[in-house]
Write a structure and sequence with these properties.
The protein is an alpha/beta fold. 41% of the residues lie in helices and 16% in strands. A 6-stranded mixed β-sheet has the order 5-4-1-2-3-6, with helices on both faces. Strands 9-8-7-10 form a 4-stranded mixed β-sheet, with helices on both faces. α6 crosses α11. Bound molecules: 5'-O-[(R)-(carboxyoxy)(hydroxy)phosphoryl]adenosine and zinc ion.
Length: 402
């Protein structure tokens, strides 16, 4: 089974063909990033216009790299949310048109769920990809870290997961991008902060890790996706997990809901970002009235490197501490990381050190936005007989959550 995946949720126009949910046949990514760098972030109108120009050549290239004609393609998968409205529209309308004209089933893919599925690719004949040796096993803990999301999700099986926690304000990638601006480093901030951090002392400054209380009021949302979310085959390694497993489905749901509502797996990055701003002001002898856009000119290279390194260590530790807590509570058989920040060598280093299991990380090229993750989830959608989307009506969902 071969699925064409199309991804246009942000600034990457991407298409890929994946076979059977485990084999990468092609992966074409065209980024309009160069057009956005001068603005310090993605400009939605520029991104949408660039998608219009790039989408057809990118899809043609993906089919040709995979040595496929339309006859070889069994279905089309497309990201319909979350993302920038204008960007999503280009991908979705293109996929709808192709599904109608080529008579293919259409699968609507949630971008964030798609990121997780990049980890299921284990084979390719494409050069320069280092893929895991085996597909992840369930129960699987997914650490999802991107420009728009910081989430921990516990998957009992395909299409059966509980969102344990998420960020209450900024995502980790957003924090990297904002800190890059303070330090005068180029966008996107993840790679540029990482590079500068390599020259600095990660223990030079102590920065805060947010301590969060329970979710309250309207902030409490039902996140349990399936009634049997906590049943099934994990090794029973601790009392909390055994307790949840022994319980009836209703009790299990309530127990899971209590875990989610306790907020113990939630994140917050706005305080850390402000702490970096105050630190930069303090180090340069300015007070909070000094324009943040002028701070980078007053910082020495050594100061920038130490701030970048201390920030990166703390931002990553925030994620790793919660992932460790979830690992200890739920004893998953595998742990995967997903999303743009999953390309971070520091995250990989800290997570591997913190957890007692071997993590087989995927290629960094499959962590940032791409069509392969969408095509892979499309393969599993077809395999598990998930409902197809109507190519005449599928709409975008810019605020889609997991
Ligand atoms: O998943 P992604 O490509 O787009 C979203 O869905 O948001 O993630 C983009 C984010 C940006 O914030 C970028 O700074 C970050 O991923 N990023 C990295 C690295 N590469 C990209 N963060 C840390 N280290 C990297 N190597
Ligand atoms: Zn993404």
């Amino acid at each position: 089974m071969k699925i064409l995946g199309i991804e246009t949720s942000c600034d990457e126009t991407a298409a890929s063909v994946v076979e059977n949910g485990d084999t990468l046949l092609s992966n074409v990514v065209f980024s309009s990033m160069d057009l956005h760098v001068a603005y310090g972030g993605v400009v939605p109108e520029i991104a949408a216009r660039s998608h219009i120009e790039a989408i057809i050549p990118v899809i043609k290239q993906a089919l040709s790299d995979a040595k496929c004609t339309w006859d070889d393609i069994d279905g089309i998968a497309v990201t319909y949310g979350a993302g920038l409205g204008g960007s999503l529209l280009v991908g979705v309308l293109t996929a709808r048109t192709l599904a109608i004209t080529h008579h293919k089933p259409l699968y609507a893919i949630n971008h964030v769920e798609g990121h997780v599925y990049a980890n299921f690719l284990i084979k390719t004949s494409l050069p320069d990809y280092v893929l895991p040796a085996k597909q992840p096993k369930f129960p699987m803990l997914a650490v999802i870290v991107s420009g728009g999301h910081s989430q921990l999700a516990l998957f009992q099986d395909h299409f059966d997961y509980t969102l344990l926690g998420q960020t209450r304000d900024d995502a980790i990638g957003e924090a990297f991008d904002k800190v890059a601006k303070i330090l005068g480093l180029p966008y996107p901030g993840g790679p540029s902060v990482g590079k500068t951090a390599a020259e600095g002392d990660p223990f030079k400054y102590e920065l805060p890790i947010a301590q969060l209380g329970p979710r309250t009021g309207v902030g409490i949302r039902q996140r349990i996706q399936h009634s049997d979310a906590v049943q099934g085959g994990a090794e029973e390694r601790n009392e909390s997990y055994r307790k949840v497993r022994r319980a009836s489905t209703a009790d299990a749901n309530a127990a899971m809901r209590a875990v989610v509502e306790s907020g113990k797996y939630d994140f917050s990055y706005s305080g850390l970002k402000t702490a970096v701003l105050r630190l930069a002001q303090h180090e340069t002898g300015h007070d909070y009235t000094f324009p943040s856009t002028e701070l980078s000119g007053a910082l020495s290279d050594a100061q920038k490197a130490d701030i970048a390194a201390s920030f990166q260590r703390t931002a990553v530790k925030t994620i790793v501490d919660k992932a460790k807590l979830a690992y200890e509570e739920f004893a998953p058989a595998s742990v995967v990381i997903a999303g743009g920040v999953a390309a971070s060598p520091e995250l990989r280093r800290q997570l591997s050190k913190a957890l007692p299991l071997e993590i087989d990380y995927t290629d960094p090229k499959l962590c940032t936005d791409n069509g392969a993750m969408v095509a892979t989830l499309g393969c599993f959608s077809a395999k598990y007989n998930r409902p197809t989307a109507d190519p005449k009506t599928l709409d975008i969902a810019p605020n889609l959550s997991m």
